[in-house]
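Same chain as my last thread, 187 residues:
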Amino acid sequence: RMARIVHIDELEKIEVAGVNWRPIRHTLGITAFGVNAYTADSGEQLIEDHDETGGHEELYVVIAGHAMFTIGGEGCDAPTGTLVYLDDPGQRRSARAAEDGTTALAVGGAPGTITPSAWEHHFAAIPLAAAGDPAGAYEVAAAALVDHPDHAALHYVLARYASLAGERERALTHLRLAIDGDPRARE
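reply #2:
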């Protein structure tokens, strides 16, 4: 399988429901989550007024320009870089462009359909380890065991944190699990 690379301006702009929709998911063949983009100039509708009673959570990312969202009747200023997350499918939402060339990326999906990567927990633990709190880092990273009990690299990371925290037996248990899961861990 090859990577598919496209610039957002190369995507077809389709006028639908009073907005300019750019079909990312369809164009790239993405099947793990819904993702599309919307573009508008100042004063134009960017995101149509709607809810997600079909059950989707949505995240909008303003990647260019400046948008003004209305969420449940409340205004929300959203300059470039703003993340707008809506976990309530019944909540009404819309947005207008406050600048020419405003673009928002919309990502959505049904709640509970993904399993977070083990690396999310590990990456979140790094600042604790760097600050000299290996026990705290262990606790944060160990949360990934719920979804990834046999993840060899995770067990290796947990062995390191446990060792640094002075928990020899716990460290050895994780190291054994890492080696059993991936013999390359022995190196």
